[in-house]
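Practice problem: predict the structure.
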Amino acid sequence: MKQVIIPLLLFSFSVSQFQSEAQNRIDPKPNIILILTDDQGWGDVAINGNTTIATPNIDNLARNGVTFCHFYACPVCSPTRAEILTGRYHVRSGVFETSTGGERLNADEITLAGLLKNAGYKTALYGKWHSGMQPPYHPNARGFDDFYGFCSGHWGNYFSPLLEHNGSIVQGEGFTTDDFTSRGIKFIEQNRNNPFFLFLAFNTPHSPMQVPPEYWEKYKNREIKQRTDQVEKEDIEFTRAALAMCENIDFNVGRVTKKVTELGLAENTIIIYLSDNGPAGFRWNGGMKGKKGATDEGGIRVPFFIQWDGKFKKGKQIGQIAAVIDLLPTLTDLAGIDCNTRCPVDGKSLKPLLLSEDDTWNDRLIFSHWQGKISVRNQKFRLSNDDKLYDIENDPGQKTDVATKFPDIFAQLTNAKNRWKNEVASELKSAEKPFTIGCPGFVFTQLPARDAIPHGNIKRSNQYPNSTYFTNWISTTDSITWNAEVLEDGLFEVEMYYSCNNADIGSDLELSMNGASLNFKLNRPNDAKLIGPENDIYPRMEGYEKEFRPITMGTVRLKKGNGLLTLRAKYIPGKQALEFRTLVLKRIAQ
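Answer:
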């Protein structure tokens, strides 16, 4: 990226001009910046008591704003995102998995972004989406004017990877968290004179553990001052890597807050910071039981800070329990927007707690669910998935079952849990939905290996499918299929992202669906190398990416309807046909 040098005098004038423009803005609706991190535990910020890490910018959001001391997300990524977007428990909106299509919000859900956009907001999401890739599940179809990032649950490379911008595949610029922040800052500058909603969905400190070298240098030999209660399960190198990534997040939070102040927008901008679940690994987390994937306290309690200069009391701490289902009703309430989602919202507006000194607040129940595991929390107690009662205020580690000591509370929460299971969790329909092609009004459809089924000898590059590719395509009886639905007739140009060495070129490929077909001879090599080992600071669970490159296969006319989209090789001259990553279908005509 070229360095741009701006004369100091011109820069000072521009800032003053920006502040004047912001102060003269007519629309009173507040800007909203929502910063969501991935796999950052409650204990991964200094202000929550971690003495190993330095997070001054995140800490300042708490000091200059409001802290919810007991705030809950879901046990894993995509359910949390679903609940943020809809204000509804994720089981209602059809989310039952983190990959293979189970992460998609039902198409009829109304999202926070959609409500804000309809109210005149400019909307953008930069980072990890994880709520569906193909329209109508894509972020551009769910209320976001601008999207830059990736739609999968995790990504295999954090340094200038292949990303997408509004459906078109592009090359990233530098470390992803830095890159997404730079996009966010540009969006703030461009929309300083009208209300905007910026969703910065960082993909760190989720693995693979990669971070710019200057952050790892601080941590690779650092003493970890605090440890988990289950010391034998903690991997110190993984802890160091996660905390280094969190310091990079803090740096980028500082970039955002500095820009908001610089442009004179602080008094008209709500800034929210939280994580999507507990830590992905055993490390210090305030003595709470559980980590990512668990419905115990440590798996779902996350840091939550909300700042609005001049509106919220600085340094205020709120002890009442709250959750991600509360974000949609809270933000629409603060913005003066009708929360018309057509479907019942499970959350409640936190505005009274934010703006009033009156702590009167009726006790409530918050339910946590993942893959059949359910726990329920009231203000003081948690009933666990295995029906044990814990006094969380005094026993966050959930070590002592107090069911016999508080039989009435135990009975109340048990009955509530059973009702919720029968009346709410029962709404979850985990049947597979087809992957959509050619959604009206959208040009691009991506069909990655993640969403496909390999047949014959073809193997997935890793057991975690989100950022995988297919290899070992050695026979003409092998194939790749997608359970697909074409939503509207169309002529599509097909582009394939692939790898193939020079010795294996020459395969004859066929893409077909419901009688329509496209034939293509692969005559251009792309001997792609693995990407990632050189940047990993801790051994990864996920597979590596490759330097996949696109090649245009031709055009195919598809008719509206359901069927199997099949990619097969009719002739393989070498050891294998190719290694496959993604198809991109571009609508070029009706």
